[in-house]
């Protein structure tokens, strides 16, 4: 899962939002530097990633990228799930998505001193370019894919290749999202309740 899904699966809890958003930038014993509520968000982020990575639907979806993008298909699928979440009218209208994105940025802004430095740099671009909202557009996905390809060490294809896979299999990927995301959401709610 990518940033939008992690924020959404924090269910408006500020500490969970912060932990969920910074988790990829917190390594090993650095976890102990954070308040227990934020640690919980980091742990939930990791549980979300584990559930997603191991799920049969996600594994099947990633196979579409395997011939040209290898293991990077996992990263592209995380962003594609965010795209369909942003467009999921059962969860967001366009106005609700815009308001939700702003509320997440506000929570993170208020926690500035608690954020890892590398995440602060990422967050600057996330907020100024409004990533959470723009995941719902094809242009936003294209920009995200370009960023991945630019930073990828072991991916030797232009961003147009994974983007073409996204475009050519759009309906199938929407079906994968629709089958997978409710299971993930139920799983995370269970974790939060301590089940």
UniProtKB/TrEMBL annotation:
A biological process from GO: fatty acid biosynthetic process
Coiled-coil stretches: none
Pfam families: ACP_PD
Alphabetized InterPro entries for the sequence: ACP_PD
Keyword Iron-sulfur belongs to the record: no
Keywords: Hydrolase, Lipid biosynthesis, Lipid metabolism
Gene Ontology terms for molecular function: [acyl-carrier-protein] phosphodiesterase activity
Domain of life (superkingdom): Bacteria
Official protein name in the record: DUF479 domain-containing protein
